[in-house]
């Protein structure tokens, strides 16, 4: 199974996805493609994927490659990392069935086409490596706790916002796995309770996608659209403890007001801490990371901070991940039947006790008979 299309190139998959159009070839640098990235590639109707990192290294159970294969999208892994810059945006790229790649009609290299057999083999490797990866994660987490005790002691600055979160429900939205399904299921909760809405980077776009305006946006601003940034929400730029804030320049260029929150960990962690220290009565997390596979899929040591932050805020934190599988909305036939009986009962009582109403029913019945030709 081959593919031909215009190349879209980026070392950061989430940035590439913002530019990707149907029928194009995604050229990525993404070790162990995670489920969310694969879902978005499928949604973008990409024609093929060229990866200059192992799509499935066998380090742990990552579901992304299998999802792409099931969607009929050819994926070819290229081991020669130095060739990444040989493909530019707009080049016409062809992926041949044997793994050969041509750029503008010229042979570039030969990679390894992902197959079901290869994925099965890597899954077996993952089973053998899982305990080792789990141990590494645990050691890293303990080291992080020793080094970053300030996350538990609150020895960091939390900005004072105009948005009032004291004794309120706060929903923290990350554009992560199943966020669409969970937001859809939580629609009635949002309409009834009206929680404060915090979008973490692209999570702000996720809220806008559902017609919801975020009250606060926090992050390093690398995966949010200009439309999202300019929606009127209060902006909190996540910075490193040393003061460096990668997203600050972009916010300044747009001429937007902002706050800075210097704290270790991910922007997701910063959002949870912001809600916690702003006095939230309850935090509802949508699309966030909450299990070992999620942490390993992120592939960064800093994910230990997420584990630590959840220890701190856990007593007021509810994770909405998978809530759409627990409860399926919609009108059930037994609900309709109960409503019909409840509505019919008073009509029946009225019809048997009121002469005028009985006369009206006879007229209606006569009219119906005339219409269907009984008389």
TrEMBL record:
Gene Ontology biological process: thiamine diphosphate biosynthetic process
Domain SteA-like C-terminal per the UniProt entry, residue ranges: 321-371
Gene Ontology MF term list: ATP binding; kinase activity; thiamine diphosphokinase activity
Cross-referenced Pfam families: SteA-like_C (PF12555)
Keywords: ATP-binding, Kinase, Membrane, Nucleotide-binding, Transferase, Transmembrane, Transmembrane helix
Xref: InterPro entries: Put_SteA-like, SteA-like_C, TPK_catalytic_sf
The keyword NADP appears for this protein: no
Top-level taxon: Bacteria
SUPFAM superfamilies: Thiamin pyrophosphokinase, catalytic domain
Transmembrane segments: 335-357
Protein name, UniProt field: Thiamin pyrophosphokinase catalytic region
